[in-house]
Amino acid sequence: MGGMKITMIAALDRDRAIGTAQGGLPWRLPRDVSHFRAYTQGKHLLLGRRTYEEMTGWFTDHTPLVLTRRRDYVPPVGRAAHTVDEAVAEAFELGAPELVVCGGASVYLAALPYADELRLTWIDADCGGTARFPDHEADHDWETLESVRHEADAENAHAMTFVALRRLRPSSLRPSRLHLL
Ligand SMILES: NC(=O)c1ccc[n+]([C@@H]2O[C@H](COP(=O)([O-])OP(=O)(O)OC[C@H]3O[C@@H](n4cnc5c(N)ncnc54)[C@H](OP(=O)(O)O)[C@@H]3O)[C@@H](O)[C@H]2O)c1
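Above are the sequence and the NAP SMILES. Below is the predicted complex in C-alpha cell form.
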C-alpha cells in the first residue's frame, strides 16, 4: 500500500444508526463535530455523493474524493471517483499519507475491506436513524488503540465514547490489486 493508511471515521448509535431516511444526522453533538473536524483537517477524504452534498461548505482545507456512479458528475471541490479502488489509487497518486472514509452507509460498506483503522464515536442513545454502519467485527479482527468516554452535558444531549481500532490481520476481502499500489 506504499504506506498510505486508510481510516474510516463514523458516529453511530447503539443500533449502529448513522443517518436518517431524509438524510442528515439523527443528533446534534458539537463534541463529535469537533472530533470529526480535528481528525479530518487537511486530509484526503472519501465521501458518498449524498454525504458530500450534505456537507457543502465544509471542505476548506480537505481534498474530497466523491464516490458516484455518474460519469458526468463534477464536484465543486475535489474530484469524482467511480469505485473505491479508483479513489484509493487516486489518493495514493496524489501523495496522500492517509485517506479518511467519511461515509455514508453504502461507502462504509464498500470501503470496510480496505480500512486499516476505524475511528468510531459510539453515541449512547437509540436515535432511530435508518442508514447503518456495517458490522465491522464480522470477518475482521481489530485491536482497541483508544477508548475515551464523555458524559452528556449542556451542549451534548448524549454521552459518547471515542474509540480507535486497528486491523489485526489483513482482511480476506481486501482487493488483491491494492498490494500492487
Ligand atoms: N454518522 C456518521 O458518521 C455519518 C457519516 C456520513 C454520512 N452519514 C449519514 O449517512 C446518510 C447518507 O448515507 P447514504 O448511504 O444514503 O449515502 P452516501 O453513501 O453518502 O452516498 C450515496 C451515493 O454515493 C455513491 N456511491 C455509493 N456507493 C458507491 C459505490 N460502491 N460505487 C460508486 N458510487 C457509489 C452513489 O452516488 P450517485 O447516486 O451519484 O451515483 C450513491 O447514491 C446521511 O443521513 C448522512 O447524514 C452519517
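The longest strand covers residues 142-150.
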